[in-house]
Amino acid sequence: MPNPVIPSPPVWASGPIPAPELRAVVSDAIALLSKPPAFAGQQTTTNQTLTANTTAGITLDTEIYDNYDGHITSINAANYYPALPGWYLCEGSVPIVPSTSSSYAAALIGGIQNNGTLTYYAGMSVPNSSTSVIIPAAAKLMLAEHGLGTLHGDYVQLAAENGAAVTVENSPNAPYFSARWICALSGTSGLAVPSNPAWPVPPSYVTSAFLNTNVSQAIEFLIYPPIMEAYRNSSSGSLASQSSIPSAGTTIVCDTKVVDNYTAFSTSTGTWTAPAAGRYWCYGCLNVVTNTNSNVIGAGLTVTSANYNGGTTYTIWGGTVTALSAASSQSGAIVRKRLRLNAGDTIALAGFQNSASSGAIGYFGGASTVPRLIIVWEGS
Amino acid sequence: MPTLWTPPPVPVFPAGYGPLPADMDTWIQNSLGFQTQGIVFRAERHASQSLTGAGNTTILWDDVIEDPYSGYNSGTGEWTAPYSGLYAVSVTIVTASGLAPVVGAGIATPETIYKTEAAGTSSAFDGGASAAQLVPMVGGSDWAAGFAFVSVSSVTTSTTSGLYSSIEISFESQ
Predict the structure, then answer these.
(1) Chain A residue at shortest CA distance from B118
(2) B82 touches B106 (CB < 8 A)
(3) For B14-47, how does the pLDDT look when each residue is reduced to its tens digit (9 = 90+)?
(4) Does B170 contact A279 at a Cβ distance shorter than 8 Å?
(5) Chain B interface, best mutation among A1, A25, A33, A97, by max B CB count within 10 A
(6) What average pLDDT score do residues A357-375 get?
(7) Is the pLDDT of residue A151 over 70?
(8) Are the Cβ atoms of B15 and A19 closer than 8 angstroms?
(9) ipTM of the complex model
(10) A137 CB near a chain B CB, below 8 Å?
(11) Read out DSSP for A15-57?
């Protein structure tokens, strides 16, 4: 399959529109939007061993889906090379076999862009279990500035780290990684969600304004929908211990944006305001510094919307997980939901923790192992 | 009720042909309509459901939030894809407090059953896990379901607002 191209819809004026022009605009757009680059793979035939305290890319020997052949095992079985420039939503998880060591298991998403440095971004980090498989998971928006074949080496991968040497399980569960194109690198923001009306029937006629609104701007919106990722760069402040999971959680203010193409996120309040109605994929990750008194942590999405809880602000939690209880441990919990929102509704990252001594816990600061909020428009 | 668009072929726009409004509706309105709206299924579990200890339990979703293509079977917990394609499936499992199981969330299809998150929990708080996969599905026959794994018996799903278990399915690609 030839690589898709990012369509560039024109602004139409009055006059005839040649069929090739419509083909180039609409057909290219449908070709991309109906089959955007996507990959899903697993590790099912090898049992990769993780070296203690060392982050390692997870090799994927089984391809579930790879519509543009971006997973090239002859180069590196851990990597997915995006076929097209843009933002990719990457998700993954790594099952760790039961381990008697009192240690941690962590999942990360890594990547390299424009011949830069391979960087890993943390998701969950939780204690191993001596009796059950533990499966940490992670998600991240990754930027590919160059598509496959441009020899710039952009790639994304799933990675894992464990506090002791352990083996990855590949049956019945298996490491799983997916990456999918969700948004162009640049475009026009502030456009309306396409309404897709029926075409005029004579004696009405098609105007250039109709074409510009319902073809050009519709395509522009769909290839450049609202997306946002922000993280907490500052290590200042702390998260207080709470004795019960609150209906409205403590907001974790993410102070640094990775991407916010509709300028919808406030780094001062940590609140994202929906710029358009629709279904949004939402992900929150609470990475914090737990300690010997720590019991559990949990991540949540605080929502203010008429669609939820009668319009009263509340937090949708992903539940809690056991925290690492050793000095200066890096614990991480996640939540992910698809939420239907109206324009103007808000979302913020919420955090919960409980410690035996009722003590507060802190943040790491920095771009890699930090609280993170990701929101992606998926449909009307 | 939203318009139920169909997955479009890439339109051709033949030269030398005067298209009728219906042609443009097929080539453009339906094509962009489907890409705008997609296919979605969202549901939650509000009532308590008992979970099998040291095993997998298919969750029966008792609050269907949206299912415009009517793919959900409330008797089996399975959602059948209306059209062939790649679907993004997310499942969140939240268990009621009281025990301290390892909690896992997973996705079952006719061919596979995988957990993609599992972690230890505390007896004092509702515990949770979430799974996510891209699942190729054949329209009209393939289904996806969400399941919970718990390491001990007598665990149930949470009944607290804000801590419900949930499933979300979204069409991603043809």
Answers:
(1) A135
(2) no
(3) 878 888 889 889 989 999 999 999 999 999 999 9
(4) yes
(5) A33
(6) 92
(7) no
(8) yes
(9) 0.95
(10) yes
(11) S---HHHHIIIIIHHHHHHHS--EEEEE--S--PEEPTT--EE
Phi/psi for B147 (5° steps) reads: -135, 160
Whole-prediction pTM value? 0.96
DSSP bridge partners of A142:
A88
Distance of residue A255 Cα from the nearest chain B Cα, in angstroms = 25
Distance CA A272, CA A190 (A): 15
How many Cβ pairs closer than 8 A exist between chain A and B?
257
State which residue of chain A sits closest to B95, comparing Cα positions: A319
| Residue A250 neighbours by CB under 8 Å, 6+ apart | A239, A240, A242, A350, A351, A352
- From chain B, the residues in CB contact with A65 under 8 A are 86, 134, 136
Query: A347 touching B, CB under 8 A?
Result: no
Residue type, A32: L
Diameter over CA atoms, chain A: 78
Element (H, E) at A272: strand A271-273
Please tell me if residue A40 touches chain B, with a CB cutoff of 8 Å.
yes
Answer whether B64 touches A (CB < 8 Å): no
Q: Helix (H, G, I), strand (E, B), or coil: what is residue B99?
A: coil
**A101-112: pLDDT as tens digits:** 778 999 999 998
Token pair, residue A157, equals 């991968």
In one-letter notation, the amino acid at residue B119 is A
Contact B8 A34 (CB under 8 A): yes
* CB-count exposure of residue B74 (10 Å: 0-12, 13-18, 19+): exposed
Nearest alpha-carbon partner for A86 in A225, A3, A185, A156: A185
